[in-house]
Amino acid sequence: MPDITLYTVPQCADCEAIKRLLQREGAAFTERNVRGDPQALAEMQRRADVRIAPVTIIGDEVVYGPFSDQRPRILAALSGRA
User: Fold this and answer.
1) Contact yes or no for 57/63 (Cβ under 8 A)
2) Can you tell me the distance from the alpha carbon of 2 to that of 25, in angstroms, rounded to the nearest whole number?
3) Cross-referenced InterPro entries, in alphabetical order (predicted)?
4) Domain coordinates of the chain in residue numbers?
């Protein structure tokens, strides 16, 4: 399985939904809180070219936006169909 990084902010419903999805799929991931960690924010901006969490990076696949937009792309990337 590819490396997965999830960039989040506190009290974000979309961030929590993505975490639950990844856990339900059995995907190990690293969570980075961009609000409390300037280095994580800079890394997210460099890797994804966006400034708003949540951002999910699965291998080379960069997914961002609300949970409803990310869900199908995350599932495709996890199944190798990305």
Assistant:
1) yes
2) 13
3) Glutaredoxin, Grx-like_ET, Thioredoxin-like_sf
4) 4-79
Could you please report the per-residue DSSP string of 21-72? Answer: HHHHTT---EEEETTT-HHHHHHHHHHHS--SS-EEEETTEEEES-HHHHHH
For tokens 């960069």, what's the residue? 62
pLDDT in tens, the chain (82 residues): 679 999 999 999 999 999 999 999 999 999 999 998 999 999 999 999 998 999 999 999 999 999 999 999 999 999 886 5
pTM: 0.93
Identify residue 43 by its one-letter amino acid code: E
